[in-house]
Every structure is written in structure tokens, then in C-alpha cells.
Amino acid sequence: MKIVYKISLFFLMGFCANIAFAQKTQLKKAEKAYEHYAYIDAQVIYLKVVADGYRSAEILKKLGDTYYFNADYKNAGKWYQELIKDFPSETEPVYYFRAAQSLKSEGNYKRSDELMDQFSAVGGLSHVIQNFKENKNYLSDIQSKSDKYILEKAEINTTNSDFGPAFYLNNIVFASAMDTVVDGKLRLHDWNKQPFLNLYMAEMNEDGKLYNMEKLGGDITTKFHESSPSFTKDGRAVYFTRNNFIDGKKGRDKEKNIRLKIYKATKLGENLWTNIEELPFNSATYSVAHPALSSDEKRLYFSSDMPGTIGQSDLWYVDILGDNNYGSPVNLGLGINTEARENFPFISSNNVLYFSTDGRAGLGGLDIYFTQLNEQGLPTEIQTLGTPINSGKDDFALIINEEKNLGFLSSNRNGISGSVGDDIYRVNRVCEITISGLVTDENTGVLLPGSLVIVMDQDNNPINSMTVGRDAEYSFNVECNKQYTIRGTKDKYEPKEKIVSTPRESSSINLPLELKPSDPCPPNDLGCRLSLQPIYFDFDRYNIRPDAAIELAKILAALREYPELIIHIESHTDSRGSDSYNELLSERRAQSTLEWLISKGITRNRLTAKGYGEGRLINECSNGVECTEEAHQLNRRSMFIIKN
């Protein structure tokens, strides 16, 4: 027996998607080149200093940073934790965050969360804290990455047609031709030699996996086709498509075709559907199918070829007035309907209408489109969902929970040509954010082409990178409702990081990166290369203070690590006292520094020392100028020069 539309239910066949997952990029350590002594590695020196028993907050920060900015998060986390433990009062908030990120990247989520709590307590970045507090269960929220959508076959597909899913409370209900047994015999349809369609329910877990299928019970199941359900939010009522069959009687048009109608059923008990009612705008002379409730449940959208239809089938709606009363059917018009087929409407909670059509310039077969409904419930701009949602075959019956970015669709893209091997696919929608900006010099605003920009996820794993061109602009596409770190680096500039929490909806974020020039080190200035803090002396003293010993330990470690290294020690005084006295005092300070290194095992022939008195002041505190004690102390210093 011929079914009109091909009952609009059998144009649907299989589907498989191959998504090219974007591979995560890995950070490479930058090769540093110096004009002289390029082999001197600050990280090696810091490790030697710590091994010798000299520790300070500054050393642990620097040591942690040497690992952190080279993506060695295991070691970075180790030294940051020691910094926090030993020098809490000298630990800025950013180090709590870097420690947390380092530990998260190593899978130590518990300790990472603890450090984020501390980060919050010490006054860390407010938006990062807010994101952390709002996403305590971020582990369960991690999803696979793709360009925009991830598709995979649902678990409930059979060897026959399975399609047309609908959300039902925490479950999914769909149409399947897996079996229709009448009087103990499998009943096959003449048109495709498949069993007739029935509605089945499957349970759904948080990841959208489907299991435990069972047929909907009660009067909703007959020996003819049932499909395309749409449930009320309370789960007590359902609209569905069925052949013209009710109370055991089937109806035909004048050409003896059994048309499609929409019916309503109510639930009695756990899984017993009864009180089947035919909607009053049905007819034996045309088909009405694929019901879809509006988000406020005051309107029912559907597909039909009733009089007034523009093409083979159009999208229509009726207002729901209650007590099985409905308004007159209204065609959605030429803005959405074409001369071909429009069917399988679905309205999301955000009032977006999704539907299928083969009347637009798509990829072939039925393609899925969407439009934002206006306040009157009418379509606005029509947009395609593109690939991988659509393929060269039939793709239809998309439903989606936009809050969870989870949905299902039907397709025959894996079927044999001319078959009805429709399958249901799970859709994970990856909401997309574009983060872009210019990389510039912090002081001058000059563009910095050639800068490397890296985007890292909330676990501090690098997921993409690029070297900016002449326009110094970078751009990355990332996911919604996630936290990312954008890092910019360039030779002779300090690394710059910015943390951004993306919104829940697709949008663009402008995030400029202003890099601060690093202080250039003269090739022969060992102290500068090792970020040496000044070696200060008390007024009129030349003994080595404890804080100076920590800095001298860096020089000591360098001399031990590189036996060929020869250095010259320069000592300076402030302007107070006579010139001759200061020359003598500075000489004593230079020799005191030299003797300290010799006492630690360095041979004398590798060291020279000289005092320069007050002849090389670094500020305005010369003779007769009033200065604070702190300003004078800046001039009482020692420097360490590499000799060629």
C-alpha cells in the first residue's frame, strides 16, 4: 500500500561523521644565544644555589618560572609549592595561581583546588576566582574538542530505521522499525519491507549515552506507523505522528492512500499512554506530521501539505487554546517555506526553530537549518548548520539542549543508496569563541611581529599557537564557558599572560598583549644574567651580610659549574665620607667579597677585585645632596664582571 510523502518518515537513512580533532600543540623551549658565554643557564645556577642550602623567595620564584614558562609543570609545581610553604608573606597571588595550574596539568586536581582557594584568599583575579567557584565540578564538564560539532552514532541504533528522537524528561523517545509483531508474526510494510514504526524510550545519562530501550506502552502503539513525538515539559502529554488510524479504524483519501495525522496522548501510570485524541485540523485528504511544541507550550508547529501549502510540504503552526481546542493553521510563509519539502521542526528553549529542507542550496538531500523566532513566534534569518551536521544525504530531526550543548539528529549518510537505513546520532555542540588581539611593546605601543602567542586550557595544556605576522595580530577559536590563558613571548621581552573566562554564548573577545622589554644584560655582566640582587653593605662596614651571602651563592654556583669562568669584582660606596676613605672602604668590600668566595673553595687565580669608592654613583646622592638611607644604600654595592 502506497504511503504519501514516502510517509515523510522514510526519506531518512544512516550517517557517520569523521571529525578531525585539533591536535594539541606543545611548547618548545626557546634556544637562547648570547654573544659571550651563551651556555650559562640561570636554571642550572639556581638549582646549584638551592643545593648549597641558600634559599630565598626570589630564588624560588625565578626557579619556578624557568620551568613554568617552558611547560615543565611538574618541576614548576614543586618549586612554587616550596615558595608558598617557606615564604608565604613574600608570595604574590599570581604564584598561587601558577602553582595551581602546574599541579592541575599533572593531574593533581585536589591540591590544585586547594591552591585556588588560597589564591582566592590572598586576593587573586576576581574573574578567575568567580569562574573557579562557579565550576567546582569542572572535571565532569570536560568535553572532547572539535571545530564546532562532534557526531557519533547513538547506542540504540538497530539494523532497521531509527530516527526522529524527542526529549522526554531525562530520557529520549524515538521511532524505530526494529519490530512490529501482530498475532505472533513480524508485520512488514509493503513499501520498504521493513517492520512498521513504533515509539521506543531509552534512558539517557549525563553524557547523552542511551540505554535500556523499551516500547511505549498503552494505546499509543498500533500495527501502523507511530513517529515524531513531542512531549510537554512535565512529561504528562505527547503529540505524535501516526497513520490515519484510530479506534481500530484506518482512513484513506480518494486515491486510497493512508495519510498522516497528529494525535495527542496522556500518560497514565509509569509507562501507559492512553486517551488518544485526534487533532481537529487533521484530514483524510492531506497529511499533518512532525509536531513540535514551542518553548512556552502555547503553540504547536508541524509539517503539512494541506491547502495553502507552497511546496511539497510546508511548516505551519496552530495556537493551543486548551481542552483540545486549537486556532486555525497558519503557514509560516515564503521566508522559510520553499517549493520543496520543509519538515521535522524543533523549537529549543532559546526559541530557535530547527528544521529540515531540501529546497535550499545545501549539500544534498535534506539539510538542517535554523532560525531565531521573533516575539510573534515567526522566523527571522534562515541559516544552515553546515558540516558535519549536514552531509550529502538526508539529515533531519535535530533536537538540542542548548544549555548542555547536547542533541541528537537523524541521517542516512551511512546507508546504501535507495535504502532506508536511518540512524540516530548524538551531537555535542562546541560553542565557539574567537579571541584575538595585537601584540605590542608595552612602553611604545609599537607592533611586535614575530611574537609567539600560545593559548592554554584550564589545565595549562597548550592547545594552539601561532607566530604573528607583520600586522602583529593573533586569533584563536576556543570553546564557550571555559577558562584559557593567552601567553605572548618574544626575544628581548618578558613573557606576558592574560587569563580569560569565555561566555556561554558564541562571541568575539579582543585581548591585546602588551609585552614589557626585558632589561638587556651586557655580555660580561654575570650578575645581570643571574638576576643577581645587589650585594649591599651596612654603612661604614665591609662584612658580608646574610642577605648578601644568598646572592653570592649564585656567583659561587656559577663558578663551580663553569671552571673556566673568571670574574672581576667591583665594589662601590655611597658619597658620605671623604673620597680617599671611600676608596679604601670599597677596596675592603671588594676584597671581603673575594675572600668569601675563596673560603668556599674558589681558587684565587679565577678572581680579581677592585674598589671604586664613590666614583660610580647610580643616583643623584652625591656630596652635599640630602638623600634617604635607602637611596644611599643603593650605591653601596658590588658587581661581577666576566673577564674574557
How would you summarize what this structure contains?
This protein is of the alpha+beta class and 644 residues long. The protein is built from ten helices and 37 strands.
Give a written overview of the molecule.
This protein is an alpha+beta fold and 644 residues long. It folds into four domains: 4-15 and 151-429, 6 Propeller (Neuraminidase); 55-140, Serine Threonine Protein Phosphatase 5, Tetratricopeptide repeat (Alpha Horseshoe); 432-515, Immunoglobulin-like, CATH 2.60.40.1120; 526-642, 60s Ribosomal Protein L30, Chain: A (2-Layer Sandwich). The chain has ten helices and 37 strands. Strands 8-14-13-10-9 form a five-stranded mixed sheet, with no helix packed on it. A hairpin with a 5-residue loop joins strand 6 (198-204) and strand 7. Helix 1 packs across helix 2, helix 2 (57-68) packs antiparallel against helix 3 (73-86) and helix 4 runs antiparallel to helix 5 (109-121). The longest helix has 21 residues, at 579-599. It is elongated and about 115 Å long. The termini are far apart. Residues 1-39, 138-147 and 186-193 have low confidence and may be disordered.
